[in-house]
Structure formats: C-alpha cells, structure tokens
Specification:
Keywords: ATP-binding, Kinase, Membrane, Nucleotide-binding, Serine/threonine-protein kinase, TPR repeat, Transferase, Transmembrane, Transmembrane helix. The chain is α+β, with helices and mostly antiparallel strands. The protein is about 55% helix and about 10% strand. It is built from 16 helices and 9 strands. The strands form 2 sheets. It has a 6-stranded antiparallel sheet, covered by helices on one side. The chain has a 3-stranded antiparallel sheet with strand order 7-8-9. A hairpin with a 2-residue loop joins strand 5 and strand 6. The protein starts with a strand and ends with a helix.
Length: about 450
C-alpha cells in the first residue's frame, strides 16, 4: 500500500495503524501545496451491496457534520475504489493521551478536572448530534500541537464494517475496560460514552489500568477511591459516571459538564447563586446551591442561615429549624437566625419557644422592630397582654408607623380591658361573697351568744 496513489490524489507515505476493520495511513494530498498531509482510512467490508453503500454514505455524512467542530478531525473526502471504502480526514499534528496517562503515574485532581471539561465539551457536541463515539480511550484522544484535545476514531465506521462482515458480525466496537455492560451487549447508549470518559479519568487519577480495578461483587460498582487522592465531590461525580447500570448514570454530556464545572466554583459563587434563586422563589434549587456552598465551606454560617430561609419557603419547617440551629452553633450572635427561628416556632404555635428565640435576637440587636412586634404577638397569643403591649411599644419606638404594631397594640389593650373588666366582676362577686359570709358568720355568732346568755 505504501507508495500507492488513491483516487489519483492521495499518495500513501506511512502506515499509522490498523485492525479488523481496516487500515489507517498517512498520505499527501497531491492537489494541495503547503500543509497537505492527511489521514486515509481504508475500510474492508466483506460484503458490498446497496445497503453497505448506503451505510457508508450515512457515516460519511455524520463525520462531515461532526468535523465542523474544531476538536474533531474534518472529513475531507470519501470514495470507493477497488471494492474498498476510503475516508480522508484532517491530519492532527500531536500525540495521543497514552503518552500522558501511564500506568503507575497518578494525575492531580486539578489536571483531571481540566481534562474532563475539555473532553466533555467536545462530547456534548457529539451527543447533540445524536452520535455515540463507542470507543473513547486515551489512544483516541489526540493532544494537538496547540494543547487542545481532539477526539478521533469514531466507532460508527467500525460498526459499519462489522455489521456487513460475515466473519466479525458479532464483534463489539469498543475497548475492554472502557466499555460498560450495555455496550458489551451491543446496546450502546449515549451514556456509554460517559462511562468511558469516567473510566479514563479514574485511570488518570489512580494510575491503574481500567481492567485491573476491582468491583463490588454485590453491586458491581467500581472500587477505586482508596487508590487516588481525590475530593469527595469529584469522586461522587466519577462514581455517577461509571454506574454499572446505564439508567443510574448521567444521561447527557452537558449534565456531567455542569457537575464538573461546579467543582471550580467557590463557596461564595454557590452562595450568590443560592441568593439569586431564592429571590426568584426557586427554593429547591436555592437549597441545592446553599448545600454546595456548605459542602465546600462547612462553617459558612450565612449559607446555613439562608438555607433555612429557602426551606421555610418550601414549608419544611423542621429542616429550616435545623439549618438555623447550625448557623447559630457556628455564630451564636446571629440575630437574623434567632429571629427566623422564632418565626418558624411562632408559625407552629410554639409561642413560649418563639419568645425565647426573639429574646435571644433582641439581646444581640435591640433595634429591629419586627422582632419586638412578633415577640408581642407571641405574648398576645398566650394572653400576656401587658408584656405584649410593652413589646409593641418597643416596636413603635423604633418604627412609629409600624401599622401592624399599632393595630395589634390596640387589640391587646382591648383584650386587657376585657380581662380587667371580667376580673373586676369576679372581684366584686368575691367581695360580695366574703362580706356575705362575714355577715352570716357575725349573725350566727350573735345568735350563739344570745343563746348562751339566756341560760338555756
């Protein structure tokens, strides 16, 4: 084959590799000057018929479309010659990742995250075109001279050859160690590629060949964390990528990419995101964002406090109380947490406990009118009207036009007058009973004295 000129244009100068599906060669495009190197893939289907031709044309169109991405080789031409198919693709000047990911050498987490981000950005484009690569592995990742990763050697072309071969019709496209079970069963999914990327990352982190990593005999889940220096956050993402059953994995490259990108966000980034989501009343998403901030910085008391607020928005009051308590444990002099804790207890009707929380808030910050107001309301609810009025007065001394305090102060005075009126009635009745009793006892004593003096 070396020295041969194909299609009156492509001069074969070197063999790059090959396998059951065909051979790959380096060639010179004689019609071009300057940068005229290209890669020629020779495919050798055992059967050539209309179906084969149609599939070849389809795969060529797929590769042509994918080649519009800067990090996927462009398809320059495709043709048939001497009952063999040929694809001509852009030559990538660089080296594959087998020169970087080596057995016994462990990559750092930052480097792995950067690799994942770059691979997943390309894979997201591939999956958006509803294409499964089928053979992601270090050998099929080229580090171009500009440092970018280029995804090569799509398995669809090999699949075309296998499906039309009488001798390799049961051949599964892919590489052991990087293939999940459904791909081994010839039922590849988009998330089969995600599994392969996860395995590549784990191999880089551990320095282990994917085939050598043990699995849990009960769950078939990969056991690898003890072989790498890795954060729980990245490990959880990778475990999700390489779940044994495809339904339990990330279902799209974009979903994984979002998760990986989140690793580079700071606790403040997540906190600010949570605040924005809270303002939009997207409380569930806000809780998730605050959780991410807390995971990065467990003593982030503002995140704990605002997580409690988001949980209040979801009416998950028990969890809200727990978040406020956690914020207070970290920073005891946090009046807003005490106040919000009191509000949850007030909503539950646990007024005595609410008052205790309001008192704690007031000890720290005495000029918050709403704390005084709701303290007054809690006192009002348990019938302690004098103390309630005193709390409303404090609220009004800080904010004279606090309409709720004005209105409920009036109600407290009214209830106090009613109570005082009822109490006065009872006191009068009691006084009458006492006086009557005294008169009766006095009259009885007088009768007894007369009886004694009469000599009877």
């Amino acid at each position: 084959m070396l020295g041969k000129i194909l299609n009156n244009r492509y001069h074969i100068i070197d063999k790059l590799g090959g396998g059951w599906f065909g051979e790959t060669y380096l060639a010179i495009d004689q019609w071009l000057d300057g940068d005229n190197l290209c890669v020629v893939k020779q495919l050798k289907p055992n059967i050539i018929n209309k179906s084969t031709l149609r599939l070849f044309e389809q795969e060529a169109q797929v590769l042509f479309k994918l080649g519009s991405h800067d990090q996927i080789p462009k398809l320059l031409a495709h043709f048939q010659q001497d009952e063999e198919f040929y694809l001509v693709q852009e030559f990538i000047d660089g080296h594959n990742l087998t020169q970087e990911i080596k057995p016994g050498e462990c990559w750092g987490e930052t480097k792995v995250i950067e690799l994942l981000q770059e691979i997943l950005e390309v894979l997201d484009f591939v999956h958006q075109n509803n294409v499964i690569h089928r053979d992601i592995k270090p050998k099929n990742m080229m580090r171009r001279h500009d440092g970018k990763i280029v995804l090569i050697d799509f398995g669809g072309v090999k699949q075309l050859t296998a499906e039309n071969s009488s001798t390799v019709s049961t051949y599964i496209v892919g590489t052991p160690g990087y293939m999940p079970q459904e791909q081994i069963n010839n039922q590849a999914q988009l998330c089969s590629d995600i599994y392969a990327v996860g395995m590549l990352a784990i191999s880089a982190l551990t320095g282990w060949n994917p085939n050598e990593l043990p699995t849990d005999p009960k769950t078939l889940q990969l056991l690898w964390r003890d072989k790498a220096q890795v954060s729980d956050r990245l490990a959880e993402i990778l475990d999700h990528m390489v779940q044994f059953h495809f339904a339990q994995r990330y279902q799209s490259a974009s979903e994984v990419l979002d998760a990986v990108n989140s690793l580079s966000l700071t606790s403040l980034d997540w906190y600010n995101r949570g605040q924005e989501l809270y303002k939009l009343q997207s409380y569930e998403e806000a809780v998730i964002a605050f959780d991410q901030a807390i995971q990065i910085q467990p003593d982030y008391y503002q995140a704990w406090y605002n997580r409690g607020n988001a949980l209040r928005g979801l009416k998950k009051n028990s969890q809200a109380i727990a978040s406020y308590d956690q914020a207070i444990q970290i920073k005891r002099d946090l009046p807003e947490a005490w106040y919000s804790r009191g509000m949850v207890l007030y909503t539950w009707g646990r007024y005595d406990e609410a008052i205790e929380s309001y008192d704690q808030a007031i000890q720290i910050k005495q000029d918050h009118p709403d704390t005084w107001y709701y303290r007054g309301m809690a006192l009002y609810r348990i019938g302690r009207y004098i103390l309630a009025i005193a709390s409303f007065d404090q609220a009004l001394s800080i904010e004279p036009d606090h309409q709720l305090a004005i209105a409920n102060r009036k109600l407290a005075h009214k209830e106090l007058r009613l109570r005082q009126s009822k109490l006065l009635k009872w006191l009068r009745l009691l006084l009458f009973v006492v006086l009557f009793s005294l008169v009766f006892l006095g009259f009885a004593a007088l009768l007894y004295l007369i009886y004694k003096l009469s000599g009877y």
